Amino acid sequence: MAVLLISLIYLAFVSMGLPDSLLGSAWPSIYEGMNVPISAVGIVTILISSGTVISSSLSDKVIRRFGTGMVTVVSTVLVAVSLFGFSLARSLPALCIWALPYGLGGGSIDAALNNYVALHYKSRHMSWIHFFWGVGAAASPYIMSATLTRGYLWTTGYRIVGVIQAVIAVLLFLSLPIWKKSLSAEEENSAAKLSLKQILQLPGARQILVAFFCYCALESSAGLWAASYMTLHKGIDPSTAAAWASFFYLGITIGRFFNGLISDRLGNRLMVRIGQGTIVLGVVFLLLPLGRAGSFAGLLLVGLGDAPIYPCLLHETPQNFGKENSQAIMGKQMACAYIGSTLMPPVFGLIADKISISLYPAYLLLFAAILIFMSEKMNSIRSISK
Question: Which pTM was predicted?
Answer without folding.
Answer: 0.84
